[in-house]
Design brief:
By secondary structure, the chain is mainly alpha-helical. The termini are far apart. About 55% of the residues lie in helices and about 0% in strands.
């Protein structure tokens, strides 16, 4: 007599994928479909991403504006001493380190491509573009995912501090290492929701699920969250 067929349980990967889809639907109901950002040229996005590291969006934007007040082209940035680049982007923090990385990046791109552009990345699939960007010093997993998503239109899923915090609170990411989180979650995010999920989680992290005083009483995914210090009543 044959044994009765057992129901197959979903794998951990399937469970994470289903959970991400549910979170996406909840956030979509709360915030709607995020407006697509205008795409920068790949080289612009790479440098913009370097300026974004370890700072706020406001200070990143100030650093970006400061650079273009001082310089009129990538060629002029590349020709300048590191000290001058550093002063121009000082508002963004870690300006000396970032200035050196930008200068080194521009020099390498010019040496390899003959010009200051990285448009060739548009012709690559996501994995090839990821490997190519990984050759440049100063571009970690999150930065690469940002370039892939925002400039190249690839379904990458950047995990910044807001995304990381929320994914840990709902139990979809365990690691505290941001680079590792960027690598681990990618395969579980359906391509079609990568952009809206990323943007809406960031908005949720800024407006509701903050690091210190989350407003759990008005959170649309509170029932999915295992955060131990929930604040379920408005104070």
């Amino acid at each position: 007599m044959s044994e009765p067929q057992r129901e197959q349980r979903p794998s951990d990967d399937e469970t994470r994928r289903q959970a991400l889809l549910l979170i996406h639907e909840r956030l979509l109901g709360e915030y709607g479909e995020p407006t697509p950002k205008s795409q920068m040229a790949p080289l612009d996005e790479v440098v913009f991403t370097i300026l974004s590291q370890n700072t706020t969006d406001t200070n990143r934007d100030r650093a970006w504006a400061g650079m273009w007040r001082e310089f009129d082209s990538w060629r002029s940035v590349a020709a300048a001493p590191v000290s001058r680049i550093s002063k121009a982007i000082e508002a963004g923090g870690l300006h000396r380190t970032k200035a050196q990385r930008i200068k080194d990046l521009l020099g390498r791109v010019r040496e390899e491509r003959g010009d200051y552009e990285m448009d060739y990345l548009r012709d690559m699939d996501m994995q090839s573009a990821r490997m190519e960007l990984g050759r440049f010093k100063g571009l970690g997993a999150k930065s690469i995912n940002c370039v892939l998503l925002f400039s190249l239109g690839q379904p990458a899923f950047p995990v910044d501090t807001h995304v990381h915090r929320i994914l840990r609170r709902v139990g979809l990411v365990e690691t505290r290492d941001l680079s590792r989180a960027n690598r681990e979650i990618q395969a579980d995010v359906p391509d079609e929701i990568a952009y809206p999920l990323h943007m809406n989680i960031i908005r949720h992290g800024r407006e509701v699920c903050s690091a210190q005083r989350p407003e759990c009483w008005r959170c649309c995914i509170e029932d999915l969250c295992g955060f131990e210090e929930k604040r379920l009543e408005s104070r």
